[in-house]
User: Fold these one by one.
Assistant:
Number 1:
Amino acid sequence: MKFDLVTQFLNLSNGVKEETWWNANWVTYFLLHDKGSLPQLQQQVNDYMKTTAVKEEARLDGSNYLRYNLEPLTKVHLYSSLAGFEPNGSIRYIYMFLIIALLILVIACANYTNLATAQSAGRSGEIGMRKVMGASKRQVFMQFIGESTIITFIAATLAFLLSVLMIPYFNNITGRQFTAAVLMQPVPVISLLVFCVLVSFFAGLYPALVLSGTQVMGVLKKGFTFTGGNNMLRKSLIVAQFGISIFLIIYTVVIMQQMHYMQTKHLGYDKDHIVVLPISGNMLRDFQNLKDAIAAVPGVEGVTASYETPEFVEWGDGVSTTDEKGQHNVSLNAMPVDLDFTKTMKMQLTAGRDFQESDFAMMDTSNNNTNFHQPFIINETLARKIGWAPQEAIGKTLDKGVTGPVVGVVKDFNFSSLHDPIGPLVIFLGRDYSRTFMVRIDGNDMKKTLGQLEMMWKQRVPGRPFSYHFLDDDYNKLYQAEQRSSALFGIASGLAIILACLGLFGLAAFTTVQRTKEIGIRRVLGASLGNVTLLISGNFLRLVGIAILIAAPLAWWAANTWLQDFAFRIPVQSYVFIITALVTLLIAFCTVGFHSLKAALSNPVKSLRTE
Amino acid sequence: MLELKKIFKWVNNGNNRVFLLKDINLTVKEGEFISIMGPSGSGKSTLLNVIGMLDEFDEGEYEFLYEPVHKLKEKQRTGLYKRYIGFVFQAYHLIDELTVYENIETPLIYQDVKASERKAMVADMLDRFNIVGKKDLFPSQLSGGQQQLVGIARALISKPKLLLADEPTGNLNSKQGEEIMNLFSELNKEGVTIIQVTHSEKNASYGSKIINLLDGRIEL
């Protein structure tokens, strides 16, 4: 838990401790005697909330009731939709990366199986001789399993060293501070060992079985040849490899597109060139002068202030209003702001006006607040929720603890994460709540403008350092987790396609050697270079084609599922699939084409020589 | 039909130049049936490959149907032999993965013959060689003699003017060999020019002319 200061709840001012049902501002923690009593407690809370007394207090009719949801603290970080002490992670991403790691491992294993089996053609003589010398089937089998074990363990050692070396880069992408010690703990080490054993067994199993089972005389006489079933396995492995790669590529592209969309989406306000400056309590006394001074700095286009910046509003609140259709209670978010808020943020008003100087007169604090009226601007969603057309809303009275007229309706803007739809929001004039200045600068010479702002700041606010940040940076921080995931996805899918191509490269080399004679015959019969290249590549490309057909719908489904998490999302574009398919085919063609061309170019006389 | 003038072919082995063909002068007229004989390594197959344009030569001139082969580009040469030359090999060199029918059809595919025409031509050829019943079999399901028959059918499918045969009976027993040789003389009578490489005096006697090779030279 990171904090600057801890204080008791009781030390807060009385206003915030007011006991009402709708203002969901605080998270409450319980310590239970017995872990198992959680469901029971939840039931009791629900039952209590359903009692008439509570419902009356909360001004609820019929079967509606408020829910207070309990979550175990240990699950908040990875599973909850609400933030805990620190920004939440998501268990889904952890599972996703685990699956990706496994998929890449599968590709690598498929490569080993494929190439080991293919290469075994060249080793048939050796196996034949071993068998002639009296090696049993078991001994040959163990020899090949042994080989795959040695290779796997060497690879694991290299991988381990590489992981240690790569930690700084990994930290760079993920924004964590891992050290090598993380890898040295028993769980990673033991799981690595277990994986090594599994991988060496499964990757080595097939070649070992095939080779140990070969007939001695057949091998010594004719050399090793593949049977149909064997081809089937090899083909399925290629399809699997490329299926995985294509899946990952499409998925990554969709994620990156969504990232791009989120960064460039028009939020309903202009987040660029907004400098955010903190306001401390004692600055409020001199607020108007300070605001004027900021506005007077050359390059500044507008100044406003608010409690929270608009990219992520957390203030929870409740309003009620009564019209001809009855009473409406809405639980919503609220934003206290200063004058010029919608103007400075370049928000659009669909009806009414922004707050103005004269509105302060409404907020009459004399006479113990008896004549206090709070002016409101509401967003379109709130108007819709209550059942008002924007124009109708103007002049209506809202009750948010204090009552006041609606003076404006603002066009919906994203004031929360793009994961969530835009909810109802009430903006109220509340200069005294201000915690941040938001200064729109023209951006022509940002350095100069910031320099002058700093000079002004140092004169006026000697006690506080000039620490500013930009609103668009704050916004981007909201999606840091997704940004990091998408970077990792990019790396993973790149790795997958490289591995798959390496395997294809090796296999193509092998296949062309095996088909040298056939290629020679075809050349003699008049096949052109193109014919032969197409013949060899065609077989592989067909497999890649099948992989595309299998992977594309899966990727479509997975990408859509991921996108469901965002209320604001891009559609999955079909051109992503088409381009991915074409690029993959092209890469595969280049990989295989090299060997095909080589085979086609070789002199057929040589491959057909019999004596 | 074709004329070789002062053909030389060699390989460089360190500082030594080993001649595979030395000063070959040969004229073949249309309708001839020529047998090339000679001991192993005398250059018989090399000469046949040069005539078939499968192999290049280092010096000399080669004219095939009035085309100067030595001046042609790879593509033109391929076009020329695709149209006019058929090959028969000692080891048959059928494609194992294809059926008899498909094997015979292959050269036509590479000559861009239309599918319907191909069908008719292959059917004719199967008919002529009495192997209609075997058209769906794979080479490994045939005897050597039958495989060679398919090999010859494949060589003849594109109606070549010249048939080149490299020890066509080398892998066959004497009865099968005799059948193949009878087929060759029949084809020759129909007007196909044939050049064969052979070890056997008896097979050579089917031809109209014998050329003896020794160490890459024609012995007169």
Number 2:
Amino acid sequence: MLAQPMKDESAEIIVNRPEVGLYHLLMLRAPGIAPLVAPGQFVHLRIWPCADALLRRPFSVYRVEGDCLSILYKVVGKGTAALARMPPGEHVAALGPLGHGFSLPCAGGGMPILVAGGYGVAALYLLAERSPVRGILFQGGRRKEDILCEPDFRALGWEVRVATEDGSWGTRGLVTDLLREELRSGGRGAKLYACGPTGMLRAVAQLAEEYGLPAELSLDERMCCGMGVCLTCVVPVRTDTGWEYQRACTEGPVFDARQLLWEVPS
Amino acid sequence: MNLAVQLGPLRLQNPVTVASGTFGYGVEYARLLDLNQLGAVTVKGICLKPVRGNPTPRTAEVASGLLNAIGLQGPGVDGFLRQYWPFLRQLRVPTIINIWGTTIEEYAEVARRFDEVEGVGALELNVSCPNIKEGGAQFGTDCRLLGRVVAACRRVTRLPLITKLSPNVTSIVPYARVAAEEGSDALSIMNSYPALAIDIETRRPRLGNGVGGLTGPCIKPIAVKLVYDAACTVRIPIIGMGGIQNAADAIEFLLAGATAVAVGTANFYAPRTALEVLEGLQAYMHRHGVADVRDLIGRVEMPGKFENGSALGEGSVRGASGLGPSADTRGGNLLGSSMPSGATSG
């Protein structure tokens, strides 16, 4: 019954700087949490200077280095705006690691394909780093500024293929169009791992089904407690007897694509 | 320093518990804190059958508060007993089980089921959830129905009964009174306040359910007033709750007349709050030379007289006379040897 360990600790900000556009990199010293993080897991941060933003904000762990962990975030509201103003040396309350992450590809197994939309790529970095098998990262965004970390994945030995909707970087079009081409041409991909906007994830799930490939998808759901209690982040999931709501913070955020219903059955 | 309080027949080693629905079934928080340090663990609302709950989004953050319409998703009595009870029953502190139904008969049936379970600390009747179509709040905003629900549960169980009242009434006084008259051992005040938040871009409610219940720091002064009103009216103990974030908040509730307090929404963003409240309460008592936490209950010094004509000091009188361990003979007699093990430990 007792799930995986987690820690609630005061984490010192080591780095907090704008990367490109609205995206920022935050590195925290979180010695209780960082060593425990598995690929696809997240941390739940309480941003103290924002008094009327009561709730914590969930962020996928991007990288882990010793006692430190990094996240990539985009300023989208008052919480992340307040976070972007916090200088190194200040502390945030960090809860983690949380959630059920990606399963690691097997050594000697088929080639993994990663699919990332926007800053969803952050959730895939640890997987790429720790996977015993290298593969291809398909990365998409609206424009060039949405393509983050591309050199990092190349440095790990992954092939990276990029699509932007406005054609300002890589191929013009959707990342799932690139993926479809690869699958149609009979590529060696054995399993898909994806994180990004819901539309992209649904398209990946559809392609996985079409080509008979397993897929693990990391959902980005609105959360409140992050530890399985409040039942805010539920998604409809297929079961043997029908369907049920499962918690993106606990049973997820990574789900098997075949389980996900996307819409509540009427 | 004495921190122990009585909720009718139920003894708590200290006055700090958690609000139903904000602490899961305890086990989730056991990873972060020692549950045996709490006064009691209060679990999320249980009814007869499993419940799927409302469509998403289910919560929305608002200024200094949280709006929710979860819809009482839960495993039902059997699922609860199978999945969560084995963990809860081995705790040394009592478990308060929040129960609800869509009819009076269902409330009574759930109460009866838990009466058969050994080790339950108390039942908390949820007559005030604003987020389900049937049941819930309708029982909490109709005095006659409320009386019938409490009486029906009282008939089928010897467990301590705590009735959780709705704030959505003109005056809480008649509700507190009828709950006490029909056999409640204690009251929980308050549940969430019905509320609405709108996304102005889409012109749609921010919750999938449309309206929801407001909780968090923004409701605390409302809750403190309701506790005060009820404490002036009834002699049964009250668990005060609504926006407690720290010991100072909790002490306000005690001074207003609450015998115990529950930490709610804060559990979602600061999981150790309940224990911090306990530590802060002890520091406050030390600083003010208060040796017994019961000496804080109802000790607010209000100017003049209450609206219902009660004397200024009644809260304090109640605090001194109505809450000692021997005060509730009914509970002691009724429970006798069937007193749940968790309830007597300290």
Number 3:
Amino acid sequence: MTNVYLDNSATTRCLPQVVEAVTEVMLETYGNPSSLHKMGVEAEKLLKKARRQVASVLRVEDREIFFTSGGTEANNWALWGTANQRAGRGRHVVTTTIEHSSILESAKRLQEDGFTVSFLEVNQEGLVDPEQLQQILTEETILVSIMSVNNEVGSVQPLRELSRVIRSRAPQAVFHVDAVQSFGKLQLYPKELGIDLLSLSGHKIHGPKGVGALYIRRDVQVKPFLIGGEQENCFRAGTENVPGIVGLGKAAEIAGEKLAANDRKLYHLNRKLREGLANIPGAHINGPKSPDAAAPHIINMWFEGVDRGEVLLHSLESEGIYVSTGSACHSRREEASHVLKAMGLSGEALTGAIRVSLSYLNNEQEIDYFLEKLTDVVSELRELGS
Amino acid sequence: MEQVLLIRYGEISLKGKNRHQFERRLLQNVKDALKGLEPRRIELAYGRMYVPLKENAEAVIERVKKVFGIVSVSVAAVVPLEIEAICEAALQQFNQVKEGETFKVETQRPYKQFPLQSPEISRRVGGYLLKNTGNWKVDVHNPDVTVNVEVRQEGAYVYTNKIPCLGGLPVGTTGRAVLLLSGGIDSPVAGWMGMKRGLEIVGLHFHSFPFTSERSKEKVIDLARKISAYSGKVKLYVNHFTEIQKAIRKNCPEQYYVTIMRRMMFRIADRICRQEEAKAIVTGESLGQVASQTLESMGVINEVTKIPVLRPLIALDKLEIIDYAQKIDTYDISIQPYEDCCTLFVPKHPAIRPKLEPVQKAEEALDIEGLIQESVDKTEVLVIYPD
């Protein structure tokens, strides 16, 4: 059966080069980087190389990259570690209502710990307003955390403007960006944008699951989250996941090299998809109307007369097409997406939405096949719907 | 000290001529339940069964406790036929008792060659216990603890505990039935109750992918696995119900969706019954719980089959059903959010008291035979074993 995987923002397939690199570490270079002997040294060299690979994609220094168990840990650490490091200077934290739950839950925990958290609202396109940020910032603000690309609707936040606002209104605040959905896909350089902390993950860029990193600008202090070892320059305890880190490094290197070409390809596929949707009557897109404010790899859509995204998803599944409803993390729960709700959506736009997320490994034929089956499935569901 | 598990089965020993057959089935079921554990010879004597306990006694007891037909079990020490050894074993067992003030000793002596008679044995053991324990007193009428001694040819069995079991009849002794198994709370309980009365349960699940997910099927398999612990295995039919639901949706009036859907399910169950030589359909219906479970609905739905429909939960409240579900450990699986019957097909205002005639008329729009045949052809048959 045809297999069209369009759920690349949930996770991706590992590249063969990545698998090869990981396998090599598991079978051959399996020493503990902390060991004094040669095998330890060999493993340490691999870490160094991977750090270089990740750092160069971001155009930062090697020593500013700290490996973690993934995006969630990086996000948890960024919030907890910054807030607790800087609690003496102020207790105000700012984030948005459309963040990934690893940020939102961290923010709620900070509230429980006595911090004040402001949640910036977004407009109907899923975008934050820099003006609103300007009004909310105070002398007490120690941390601002805003995602780069939203995982459900693909809205790209105006980080440059947001950063400018922070620098002028609250220069004391640390600026954290959850870049899990944009690392290796969008040109995103922390030094240029004035970003202090940035989270990324391996398995969204055809690397392994269970590995990610937090970029911490050289002169920013973040309290360690995992303790009990001197790994990662004493900032993240625990024996390094060397195979995973090597896999992340390899995947980052490949993504970085092909960034411009991939970007072109994704824009092309995206345009094709949008044109195809325009031909389906009653099809709508949730998210930025202008492709400039939207990441090319994520499109959230809904169809008049189709009120359950889940049924649409399974109908496509029976045609060998894999998409998601909202983000994979909460689509197993019954509740509607907090992101779509924050965008003020209701009715079918909320409950009937599905997300298609592309990779540069997808091709035109797959988009054609998807559009063809989507058209059939939507009209069949409409026929069955009340 | 050597130990055996003594198994008592009450009701089946009352079954007159069938008793032998019932015992044989129970023996087989106990053997099946112990599959995978160290093999052992199970003995049947004097209306009881004796399972030697070697290693992993706990696992043996846990499994035996789930075999229907057993009223209670006891863990007995087996000692040589000497009164000293019996007294010593009794003391050891007695010392494990945590609570109580009074006790008595009860002796049975099927092995008449043993020199002491039952009352004498009881006296000797009782005296020994009084001498070697603290503040215990003898009370032959209402003792807190009973020390049992059984003198048999191969040795003396001494025990104080009695673990109550599930009772019922051995699975397979009353026939085979098809259980309509959804992913909900009720139907696994109904199946379990059917098993309790000796039925061999064949599960039938209606799967409506893509309107429900693969996970809802996995959930049903997990439920079947849970109840299979009480029967050794469960055969499960997963019927492809999607086309039927679509046809109903397209061709029938909305208020009858559920009634007609249930009638189609019963027709398929009827067919599976014939295929499986099953003599009944078991459902998890409880009177008045939902629109399809009113007397009128049940009447109209039942009309499509002549095979008896057993509804073990008919008089139970939801909370009582939940209690059972928790007891048999299916509750946590049942409440997982994967739906089994898509809300797409549940009308806002179902007919609560449908009448047969208009329903039959509405069904004329369907190619009933064709639809059933197609769904039966696409049915997947699985055999589920306990963990």
Number 4:
Amino acid sequence: MSDLTQRFIERIQGATAPLCIRGGGSKDWYGNAPRGEVLETRGHAGIISHEPSELVITARCGTPLAEIEAALAEKGQCLPFEPPRFSAESTIGGVVAAGLSGPRRASAGALRDYLLGVKLLDGRGHELVFGGQVMKNVAGYDVARLMAGSLGTLGLLLEVSLKVMPLPAACATLQLPMPQAEALERLKRWAGQPLPIVASCWQDGVLTLRLSGARAAVEAAKEKVGAGDTAPESFWDDLRDQRLPFFAAETLWRLSLPPTTPPLDLPGEQLIEWRGGLRWLKSDAPAETIRAAAASAGGHATLWRAPDELKQRVGAFAPLPAPLMMLHKNLKAVFDPRGIFNPGRLYADL
Amino acid sequence: MSHTLPSTDTPEVPDAARDALLHELSGILPPTSLITHAEELKPYECDGLTAYRQMPWLVALPENEAQVVAILRACHRHGVPVVARGAGTGLSGGATPVAGGVILSLAKLMHILAIDPQACTARVQPGVRNLAISEAAAPYGLYYAPDPSSQLACTIGGNVAENSGGVHCLKYGLTVHNILKLRIALIDGTVIEIGSDAFDSPGYDLLALLVGSEGMLAVVLEATVKLTPKPQAARVVMASFDDLTQAGNAVAEIIAAGIIPAGLEMMDKPATAAVEDFVHAGYDLSAEAILLAESDGTPEEVEEEIAAMQTVLEKAGARSLRVSQSEAERLTFWAGRKAAFPAVGRLTPDYLCMDGTIPRKHLAQVLTRIGELSERYGLSCANVFHAGDGNLHPLIMFDANVPDELERATAFGARILELSVDVGGTITGEHGVGIEKIGQMCVQFTPDELAAFHAVKAAFDPQGLLNPGKAVPTPRRCSEYRLTGTAR
């Protein structure tokens, strides 16, 4: 455990040029290109408290995700939103700043749903605390959740508190061969039923389902979804951390869509998660075509991995309507009036 | 019964501007949708926090989105404050009028616009009642999970403003976890959609910021909510304890055993007595604490979990256990808990309902301290507790017609909230700050944090016209609070 708060404050207050807040660097490639002088947060590490019966863990930003997951597992708990681990260096501050969630997101909720509180340094170097360590807290605006996915553009996260949950009693993984359209149809039908389907993945003619919950519920559900081959549970770790061969692509799009969207008419190979709500696309189609298809379905497309030139040209994230961008700029000015935190990482104007 | 309201620090509006605004509003709304007579304004002078009253200048009751936007635009142009209001069931004074301001009632925007059983969503107008959503979704085997005890009357717009909870939050989340998308109007009439029918949206999570913002950032025009498949089965265990500490420990033991009950509620002896007299649910009147622990899911799952909870509760020293044997019995067990507020309301002319949330491990300590405060202030207090998520509702009983009882009740409540902050909790878990707890915000937050909240408001509403003077205290008010222990 070490406390580098004072050093961070001096760096922020003395900054005359942009700072690039960086934890383990496992997501340097995510979003638009990082720029500015690197401010390392890894040294500010350590779990501050974990009380299993309170279902909360509080840790400093530089604490490795692996350390947190190990501490939770020891007490039979987990982070149900399954943040991706792109390398062993991944820190909890980076996990919150990126706001990404894994395979169980459609059933368990997203990172932001589990974020209870943050301590941060704003662009003036002021230490601010929002939210807390309790499940329910409506005092003041929910600035803590606003930090989830803000990519470090609003402040330097010093500490985060997350709600944790017990590990499921039982899990099973089934694989059923079927074409995309049928998989989407079935997932749609199952969504409205009280079934313990916690994750789904369709790729290359195979639908993989993860069932989890009480032993009895998992057994009963196996019959309902239909006979299939069982597959190892490690499949979900490979999916979560994007180690499946599918993800080795030079250009990869992430389309977040209403889950009931029918199969997309876009060229390229797809991998579908979140019962249809998340569609990974390997495609060389023009960015405008892909973004327009996502928008017309009621979602948005992120340029996930791409050559620098393409990312610079079209931006990592779907453009925002003008009034929404105005609110973003106003909020950026509230927390980082000098514009020193991770400028351009999320949008050129922030 | 009435109390002086905190000043709002909004600029005076010249009479000529008022006349012009009234003229414009008459052009936007039919006469029946514009209330200006004192007699008809009376029902709007307070919300569920009846101890604080203020007559509004007028009440506007738009029937559609275009009218809402036109009203906001007109008020914005003339610099007149606007307070949005749903059913007025809020308990913290979030919808208490502002002197000289407009009440924007959204009660007539009460249409369920779409239910999509495959996407498990409903798109509704802000004036739709919480329970009406579940009723409309029932034919598809779905429901809207957050269930505040006012769910029969309260509206989704108000739920969004307050981030309302209920008795099933630990497993199913608060309003913020169950709202997918909002269509909002800013004070200048700009209409924006935030959130998405997809699982996320690009940019900042403005949805999280809007939910629980107490009507101070924007007005909700439409909400898309998540619907949850109705569990096939639900049963509840009722356990009685001789000792509050034991009951508190039992809660921790259930969670430590890896169980997340659908509901986990506690009542102390005075609360049990009040509700038993009201609903005759067969509660154990000699117990110091009663715990209700619900399991839902498939029948197999429920059997497994109920048995596990019984074992834990017995080990934790429960004096007696009853498991609901039928749906009717389950509802009876819950009836008392759900009726706790009205039941206490029968025992006393007035009551204040506190809403602190604490780390559960401090429960016994906090309840003991509340007992001491009850003696010190000479006022009775019954405690109901969302034990699963640490949200405590002490009900302070008083009679506002007895000189200084309201003052004593308010001071008693303030001490409870300060105590909640001291043990690492918060002054409000689900009812909101409003005007009721605005003084205690000075205890929970530093001047820098409060300044950030003011700046967030200004990012949406630079002139400070939407529900001004609520939720976030001015530095002046905090200095006053620190000197006197009261901000009013």
